[in-house]
Amino acid sequence: DQQVKQNSPSLSVQEGRISILNCDYTNSMFDYFLWYKKYPAEGPTFLISISSIKDKNEDGRFTVFLNKSAKHLSLHIVPSQPGDSAVYFCAASAKRGETSGSRLTFGEGTQLTVNP
Amino acid sequence: SAVISQKPSRDICQRGTSLTIQCQVDSQVTMMFWYRQQPGQSLTLIATANQGSEATYESGFVIDKFPISRPNLTFSTLTVSNMSPEDSSIYLCSVGDVSARRAYEQYFGPGTRLTVT
Questions:
Q1: What angle do CA B112, B3, B96 make, to 5 degrees?
Q2: In this predicted model, what pLDDT tens digit does every residue of B33-51 receive, in sequence order?
Q3: Could you say which of B41, B48, B107 has the minimum Cβ distance to residue A101?
Q4: A36: closest CA among B107, B64, B55?
Q5: CA closest to B58 among chain A residues
Q6: Is the pLDDT score of A99 beyond 60?
Q7: pLDDT for res A98
Q8: N or C: which end of chain B has fewer CB within 10 A?
Q9: How many Å apart are CA B84 and CA B75, to the nearest integer?
């Protein structure tokens, strides 16, 4: 049961254009969403997050949009740069309590390639 | 964010043997987690490493196969026991801190690439 899905395994865009990465989820208990970037031979790097009480969060070139009714979120990167080429993972969390921490459920990842 | 290191960075092991992976954090953290990323797949949570008590395992993972230690707030180990080729994966530790405003966010170590022959 894949609760977090990234249906596009790869995306290729030109430098300077917008990259849009999509993510869908099925569990209505998820209340926090995160995007991670992963380069080969490195661990995932936290990029940006959004709480379910918001529909948009922006940080520099990165914006995450959340559509709760559609159970869909997207990451926009503008303008895209060649250094953005990496695998992007969407993750979701349903808080289990103050002392138990938060369990992250990850999507399959999307390989973004930004061409110069 | 915390600086997280893992040892070893990679290893090639024979089936039937065990490997212990270490995760060291440069500051005290409340939560530590262990994930697995099998080839071509996403990250899957193995267990939450609890300081001073037994780890909490996710469905499909058991203590006999993946024993975990968490002796203090900066260190944890994951052992992959009686390995088979299906255990070939990248193993990652992550940390989170429920005391922080961003309690849901986790930060990952560089990973340990394990190949079982």
A1: 85
A2: 999 999 888 999 999 998 8
A3: B48
A4: B107
A5: A103
A6: no
A7: 47
A8: C
A9: 26
